[in-house]
Amino acid sequence: MSDPVFVTGASGFIARHVLLDLLRRGYRLRGSVRSLDRAEHVRASLSRHLGEEVGADRLDFRQLDLGSDAGWTQAMEGCGALIHMASPVPLAQPEDAEELIRPAREGTLRALNAARSSGIRRVVLTSSVAAISGNATKAREIHLDEGDWTDPATPGLTPYARSKTIAERAAWEVAEAHPELRLTTINPSFVFGPALDEDTGASLEVVERMMRGGDPAIPRVSFFVVDVRDVAALHVAALEDDRTVGQRIIAGSGQMWLRDIVAVLQAAYPHRRFPRWPAPDWLVRLLALKDRPLRFIVPQLGRKTLFDTGRGRALLGRDFIPPEDAVRAAAASLVEHGRI
Ligand code: NDP
């Protein structure tokens, strides 16, 4: 593809890996950032990893906000494809869900409508397994695939999961009305793996928090984990393979209990202090009465959500990076970039 690929949210943890992969494959890129102040930092980080200067002829930037109409269509003019990744990824869930839902949904509509107006005919959207797995259930173990959808009206659903579900639904509605956009969604599970620099986003917070060792005990929660390098590879593979048009593709490697994550970290950093004891569910429930972030993990206690990842593996042509490696790589990058 000779026309540049447009990537929204170019400053993000996952987006930097996508930009790096695309640069390695010779693409020209245009990225959106909320503030152009961030642009040179992103360029410098990518240049460091590529081992050569990334000039404006290969990557340039536009300033766009998900919450504002200004500049979207002009920004995408001349581009051949869109990867829409920007969406609020909060460290803590807000009181008002609209703080996430509005920019996620309206930003998706702005991005897709601008793509249409500027003649783009290929779109890859970063959704999430949150748009697949949010429904209430009493089952201790559930198995889901790309055909499953979160009902955004599910009681107790996190504002983030609602925002991702509503935004992805909006994207498919646009794509149905305008099939020339040729949409694929990538639905990553919990993303670990290495950060390219010290901006680690909310994603590595769990690993960072465990490595800080301040928590007294480990709640019985589990994560379906994927390495950021595989998430990036899937975006690129989907972009290049038209057979993925119309598909959702789960990016996920395997399930880990939080205690397994801590055990991997403890083995890699034996001289650090980690939380050691399991937190009984009753205690988590009790603390959650006063602690808002904990309230959202109560429905997850003791529950395993497993995803069918066959479609993603077929597209990659290999297995996903094992979840334990993704945890170790995340930790190593936190240490390398001085976060821990
Ligand atoms: P980051 O927070 O690192 O990246 C989010 C990006 O969105 C940033 O570039 C951010 O810009 C941008 N953004 C947020 N709000 C706005 C706004 N109002 N206007 C313009 N840009 C905005 O998160 P990740 O890299 O982890 O996430 C990237 C995508 O992947 C998101 O769509 C997320 O939902 C999805 N995802 C992430 C998972 C994970 O575990 N990390 C799992 C599943 C899906 P700025 O740098 O200025 O804040």
Question: What is the CATH third-level topology name?
Answer: Rossmann fold
Number of domains: 1
Whole-angstrom Rg: 20 Å
Based on the coordinates given, report the CATH architecture: 3-Layer(aba) Sandwich
From the N-terminal CA to the C-terminal CA, the straight-line distance is 41 Å
Tell me the number of strands: 14
List the defining traits of the structure above.
340 residues; alpha/beta; Rossmann fold; 7-stranded parallel beta sheet; 3-stranded mixed beta sheet; 17% strand; binds NADPH dihydro-nicotinamide-adenine-dinucleotide phosphate
Descriptive overview:
This protein is α/β, with parallel strands linked by helices and 340 residues long. It has one domain (5-336): NAD(P)-binding Rossmann-like Domain (Rossmann fold). 39% of the residues lie in helices and 17% in strands. The protein contains twelve helices and 14 strands. The strands form four sheets. The protein has a seven-stranded parallel β-sheet, sandwiched between helices. A three-stranded mixed β-sheet has the order 8-10-12. The protein has a two-stranded parallel sheet with strand order 6-14. α2 links the parallel β2 (29-33) and β3 (59-63). α1 packs across α2 (39-50) and α4 (98-117) packs parallel to α5. The longest helix has 20 residues, at 98-117. 46% of the residues are buried. The mean pLDDT is 96. The site of NADPH dihydro-nicotinamide-adenine-dinucleotide phosphate (NDP) has 25 residues, from α1 and β8.
